[in-house]
Structures are given as structure tokens and as C-alpha cells.
Design brief:
Blueprint: H1 9-25, H2 29-34, E1 56-59, E2 63-65, E3 68-70, E4 72-75, E5 78-86, E6 91-96, E7 112-119, E8 123-129, E9 139-143, E10 151-156, H3 175-180, E11 182-189, E12 193-202
Antiparallel strand pairs: 1-3, 1-6, 2-5, 4-5, 5-12, 6-11, 7-10, 7-12, 8-9, 8-11
């Protein structure tokens, strides 16, 4: 051909390979990979953590195994938070969002959080603000049983997704104010349950390692 317009064979091969990859992936591959996925926080903390959350604690409220202290255990190169609820009584598991009790986070810009977990029965998660930490009268949302299977679910911070339980009481503050000064996510349940947490990523929030 004239004018030196011949295309190198290696370049032709590369183009063909890329076209084949796009064909195999299908038109929805890019959207599926980019959409609906939790943000990555980068490296874990120097001490045991799950998505940079270092404080997964049994509070001593309700009969649990372990009864108190950290729930974190080594699991396949990372960590899991494991706890067993015993008996028909309220059990309380605490996750400090800022990795220390005195810290709080403004989650008013966040859309919600992704939770990767196993549960053999239903439970609830409460959003507890710094100014109203104690007591059961908190805004909460249901965490459904997974039948013991590991699943990833998104929990929205839309006010309509959060409610109260008459048995625990109704909070005197708004859900919006709780988001603005969130100290922790507290998991509560009144039935026997086997729980295994593998991930908890909050939209637009990166926990500070201690």
C-alpha cells in the first residue's frame, strides 16, 4: 500500500482483543461494576478493624457470647465480628463510628451504609447520637435474617426507613439531628441469634484509625 499506511499486526491484534472483551462483557457491564457498590476506604487500621471500624463491642446487656469486650476475630486474612445472642431478652452490640466513645460523625450528607453480615434471626440497628447516647428510645431500622447466609445489604438514611419500637420508647429528638451527631450504630435483638459481620461502609464517611 502507498504512503506507509500499513497497520502493524500487533496493533491489529490488540484492537481485536479489546473488541472481543467488550462483546463478552455485554452492554451493562460498566454500569453494574460502577453502580450500587460501597465506597472503598483504602487500607485497614494497624490494629484489628473491619472497614476501618476498630470498636465492635459486646456491651454486657443481654446474654451474649462473648459477654463483653471486642467481637473481632481473625478471618481469612482480615477480621470478622462474631457474637451469639442467647435467651429471649434484649442484647446490645455497639460499633463506635469514630473508634472512640467521645467521637461523633456528621452523616447528614450520607445516603446510608452497606452491611455485609450473616444472621439466623431478625434484629435491629439503632442510630445513637452523642447527645442522647443512653437508653433504648432510639431511631432504628430492621436488619433482616439472612438464614445464616453471608449477604451484603444497603440500609438507607432516608427518614422514612427508620422507625421506633413501643417497647423501647420514642426518642425526643429528630432523626435528622441524630444523623448530624452520630456516635455509633448499635445492634439490638430480643431473640437467640448467630451473628457474623464482615463489612460496614458508611457513604461519604471514612472512620479515623486510632
Amino acid at each position: 500500500m502507498r504512503g506507509g499506511s500499513r497497520i502493524p499486526f500487533s496493533r491489529t491484534l490488540a484492537v481485536a482483543a479489546s473488541v472481543l472483551l467488550v462483546s463478552l462483557a455485554g452492554p451493562g457491564a460498566t454500569a453494574n461494576a460502577a453502580g450500587g457498590q460501597p465506597p472503598r476506604h483504602g487500607c485497614e487500621c494497624a490494629t484489628p478493624s473491619i472497614d476501618r471500624l476498630q470498636q465492635w463491642l459486646a456491651s454486657g446487656e443481654g446474654t451474649t457470647v462473648p459477654a463483653t469486650g471486642s467481637l473481632l476475630v481473625r478471618e481469612r486474612g482480615g477480621y470478622a465480628a462474631k457474637v451469639t445472642f442467647l435467651n429471649a431478652e434484649w442484647h446490645v452490640i455497639v460499633v463506635w463510628l469514630g473508634n472512640r466513645f467521645e467521637a461523633q460523625a456528621d452523616l447528614s450528607k450520607s445516603t446510608g451504609f452497606w452491611l455485609t453480615y450473616r444472621a439466623t434471626d431478625d434484629l435491629y440497628v439503632q442510630l445513637r447520637p452523642a447527645s442522647h447516647w443512653s437508653g433504648g428510645d432510639k431511631w432504628l431500622t430492621k436488619v433482616p435474617s439472612t438464614g445464616g447466609k453471608l449477604v451484603k445489604r444497603f440500609f438507607s438514611f432516608a427518614p422514612r426507613a427508620w422507625t421506633t419500637l413501643p417497647e423501647l420508647g420514642k426518642p425526643s429528638y429528630s432523626f435528622a439531628s441524630a444523623l448530624a451527631e452520630a456516635r455509633g450504630l448499635v445492634f439490638v435483638g430480643k431473640t437467640a441469634n448467630e451473628l457474623d459481620f464482615r463489612g460496614l461502609r458508611v457513604d461519604r464517611y471514612t472512620p479515623p484509625c486510632l
